[in-house]
Amino acid sequence: MQENGELAVFLNLYDGVNISYSGKVVEVGEQSVTFNVDIMQILAMRQEKNAYIVENAYLKKHLKADISDINIALENVTLTNFTYIDHMNANLRTCPRVHPSKSTRIRLSGQDSVIEGNIYDISKGGLSVLSSEKADFDTEEPLKAVFKIELEDGTKTDITLDVRLVVRISYNGFLRYCLQLCGENNTKEFDDFIDKRIGETIEELKKQVNLYR
């Protein structure tokens, strides 16, 4: 890649939003490679604690690498321990998945059980809920998710979504319910809320970048 001047395409998640910039190889060591790439990508790598390179004509699969060193002034990152991976989380997502800007309570109800918790992350395709309460929802069971979101003018509105459980996992001492949207949801305000959070997340990252420039 270095000899032919080919660029590597990096793909990372920053607070659930895909960040992807191309980088060029500037130095090849015995067990490391140094790339020059945009600071936004480097900060996304640092948050994920790894770098991910998209497969190309020179790579038979995607690559995952550890971060050995970062030089923000030069916009360089040195990577080691390259391993091939079959899938990248960021590459599989059809919708950006963002975190609410503030704690957002949610009520999840099924045929026989009701739990309350907080939204962990959210997208136009679904959401996940952290709760200390256990409910044995079936994956085929229709569920209702009810919560409030804040609109552009500062007012709050109720959102009700038809969802189904994809999986329930243990997460940092809580139960995390991963849910997929289903049915005919009227989601314009919901979609607008997510678009706003995506924009806010990118702006938050740009503000961090400006601290280094």
Question: What does this 3D model show about the protein?
Answer:
The chain has 213 residues and is of the alpha+beta class. The protein has helices at residues 39-48, 89-92, 188-212; strands spanning 8-9, 12-14, 17-19, 22-28, 32-36, 51-53, 62-71, 76-85, 105-109, 114-123, 126-131, 143-150, 156-171, 174-181. A six-stranded antiparallel sheet has the order 1-4-5-8-7-6, with helices on one face. A hairpin with a 4-residue loop joins β7 and β8 (76-85). α1 crosses α3. The model has no long low-confidence stretch (mean pLDDT 91).
Fraction of helical residues:
10-25%
Please report which band the strand proportion falls in: under 5%, 5-15%, 15-25%, 25-35%, 35-45% or over 45%: over 45%
Helical run tally: 3
Helix-strand pattern? EEEEEHEEEHEEEEEEH
Shape: elongated
Structural class category:
alpha+beta
The largest sheet is:
6 strands, antiparallel
- What is the radius of gyration? 20 Å
Quaternary organization: single chain
Mean pLDDT: 91
Low-confidence stretches: none
From the N-terminal CA to the C-terminal CA, the straight-line distance is 29 Å
Strand order of the largest sheet: 1-4-5-8-7-6
